[in-house]
Design brief:
There is one protein chain. By secondary structure, this protein is mainly β. The protein folds into 3 domains: 121 residues, Sandwich (Immunoglobulin-like), CATH 2.60.40; 102 residues, Immunoglobulin-like, CATH 2.60.40.10; 131 residues, Immunoglobulin-like, CATH 2.60.40. The protein contains 6 helices and 24 strands. A 4-stranded antiparallel beta sheet has the order 6-5-8-9. A hairpin with a 5-residue loop joins strand 1 and strand 2. It is flat, with a radius of gyration of 30 Å. The C terminus is likely disordered. This is Fibronectin type III domain protein.
Length: 418
């Protein structure tokens, strides 16, 4: 017999060892309410009050980032049931918990899981608190200066005083590093945002200039400066806002495509036909996306393919957008119709029209000077709500797989282009 719980846990029994199964009903649900009374430098004072049907409870202190990641009470109940530690069978009016193992200036949550007289895990109660900050050694201070900001990056200079033991800096698109802390913090075992910045950041203990590159134009970024004193105690984390310069204009953004040579090139050690294509954004373009698909597959869902292109990434993905002119090749067999799709954003992040061009490769690979690709059709489509249907996969630089049956997109292999 297997019992499946709503939190995903399963409990199994050998049926020959089960004497009987009863379904009992108890009025109400066991609870163990917890309340934070005082947060001291080294101890936490709290109260725990059980209701009449609470036989026992488990109590644990978790970093808030971990408690948030566990999520709903039903999931937390499963976690506490397996990992909550000892049972407690009495109320506490002035319970004192030592805090020596907790990090200073960090958010935590006291969690209780109550059990009824049958040993059934019932209600979860949470009480958040923040540990006190430790005093700093000396008078540690950091100064910073934004030296330059361009379309694709920026440079900042950081200067510590003599009481700084070290510092680390991390830059990311606005809001992204915080969301990654929530996602990766529990897996990394960090208890606060400062620990994450120190772990991920560029470390130093002297004055230095740091340049970040390969960022997107006209985009808000945040530079996180985390310093600590000579004893390793964290200062408050500084957040420095930076916005990259605008690329493109306010007019219509579009991309011009030009077909180049059709010749044999090496693909995974084998010579195969390659169609070279040059993509050139106009001067109003901030960024653009491209897609190449076999016409036979495109015709199965034209609107779906068009709608997949003018989309922002669900999270930062390298080469989701392209910014500069680029020449790349695609492995396409002779006498094959294929579709080239492009769409661009202008400097105000407004999408232009989706441009769709259909071509057909020559009957055979020959002298590139005489290998003429036939243009079949050209069309442009407005970006509208009906296109919010799919997402293109990220384009991976330097990796162009062969088109096989069932594959939709051919990823470009960059020949010259950033």
């Amino acid at each position: 017999m297997v019992v499946y719980e709503a939190n995903g846990l399963t409990t199994s029994y050998l049926s020959e060892r089960v004497d009987s199964v009863k379904f009992l009903q108890i009025e109400g649900q066991a609870t163990a309410d917890v309340e934070i009374l005082k947060v001291g430098a080294d101890t936490l004072t709290l109260s725990v009050t059980r209701n009449g049907i609470c036989q026992a409870y488990k109590l644990a202190i978790l970093p808030k980032v971990k408690a948030d990641a566990i999520g709903k009470d039903v999931t937390m109940a499963g976690y506490m049931h397996l990992n909550g530690g000892n049972f407690y069978y009495q109320d506490f009016e002035q319970g004192v918990v030592p805090l020596e193992e907790l990090k200073p200036s960090s958010e935590y949550v006291v969690v209780t899981l109550a059990y009824d007289p049958y040993g059934t895990p019932c209600s979860v109660c949470r009480a958040p608190f923040t540990t006190q900050a430790k005093p700093l050694a000396g008078n540690p201070k950091m100064e910073y200066k934004v030296d330059s900001v361009g379309q694709y990056g920026f440079t900042l200079t950081f200067t510590p005083n003599e009481d700084i033991g070290g510092y680390a800096v991390v830059a990311g698109e606005k809001g992204i590093v915080q969301s990654q802390y929530k996602q990766f913090g529990p897996m990394m075992g960090v208890s606060n945002f400062s620990e994450l910045i120190k772990s991920w950041g560029i470390p130093s203990d002297t004055a230095r200039s740091v340049t970040w590159k390969n960022f997107a134009p006209n985009t808000d970024y945040e530079v996180f400066l985390q310093a600590w004193d000579t004893l390793g105690v964290f200062l408050p984390c500084d957040t420095i806002p930076v916005r990259t310069k605008m690329k493109g204009g306010t007019g219509e953004a579009f991309v011009t495509t030009e077909l180049g040579e059709y010749k044999n090139t090496m693909w995974d050690g084998v010579l195969k036909p390659s169609q070279f294509i040059t993509f050139t954004p106009n001067d109003q373009t901030n960024c653009y996306r491209l897609g190449v698909v076999l016409d036979s597959l495109y015709q199965q869902d034209p609107e779906g393919h068009q709608g997949a292109l003018p989309q922002d990434p669900p999270f930062p993905i390298e080469h989701w957008f392209w910014y500069e002119p680029m020449t790349t090749d695609f492995q396409i067999e002779p006498s094959t119709k294929f579709v080239v799709m492009t769409v661009a954003k202008n400097g105000e992040n407004k999408w232009g029209k989706v441009k769709v061009e259909t071509y057909e490769t020559p009957a055979a690979v020959m002298d590139p000077a005489h290998a003429t690709v036939k243009k079949v059709s050209t069309a442009s489509y407005e970006v509208g709500s009906r296109f919010q249907t799919k997402r293109l996969p990220a384009l991976v630089k330097g990796n162009a797989p062969v088109v096989r049956k069932g594959e939709i997109y051919v990823t470009p292999r960059v020949v010259n282009g950033k």
